[in-house]
Amino acid sequence: MNILIHNIKSFCNFLLITMVSCSTLWANVELPHSLAIQGYSPVFYFEKDKVAMGLPQFSTKYKGKLYWLTSADQAQYLPKFEAFCPYALALGRKVAIDPTNFKIVAGQLLLFHRSNELDSLKGWNHSDNEEELLRRAKNNYLSLNF
Q: What are the residue boundaries of the structural domains of the chain, listed by start?
């Protein structure tokens, strides 16, 4: 029994050291300045309904930003409003997104702002007219980008 406990403790220590080493290595990787949505793959939002980091070897440039995908030929999955929250856009403001706060609407990836003060996805979901919010976000996105 003591051998089993010793082996379990050794394995847990190995896992802990491996996890710390991997996170330290990832933390020391310098991400490109133009990297969009912090390196998350827009593909996973559609295919898996969750978030996952993309891979640099499957990168694509779109409107001056670099997107990391999970495989080649997946540019149709890029976020609708790039790095801006559609709820804030619908209200006439440009606000940064949290790439882990997302929703697929009419086949389009929408990324929402989230902070301690505000979760824009909750505001979007409490709206009575999602189509109107999307229409206003599109119009304001075009006018705010010029």
A: 1-30, 32-77, 79-146
The reported pTM is 0.59
Q: Which two tokens stand for residue 128?
A: 């009575």
For the chain, how far is it from start to end, CA to CA, in angstroms?
A: 70
- Please state, in angstroms and rounded to a whole number, the distance separating the CA atoms of residues 86 and 34: 21
Give the three-class secondary structure for 42.
helix
β-strands 55-62, 65-69 pairing: antiparallel
52 Cβ contact partners less than 8 Å away, ≥ 6 residues apart: 40, 41, 44, 70
The pLDDT, as a whole number, for residue 46 is 82
Distance (Å, whole) CA 61 – CA 43: 15
DSSP 6: H
Residue type, 123: G
Q: Averaged over 15-27, what is the pLDDT?
A: 39
Q: Per-residue confidence at 88, pLDDT binned at 50, 70, 90?
A: very high
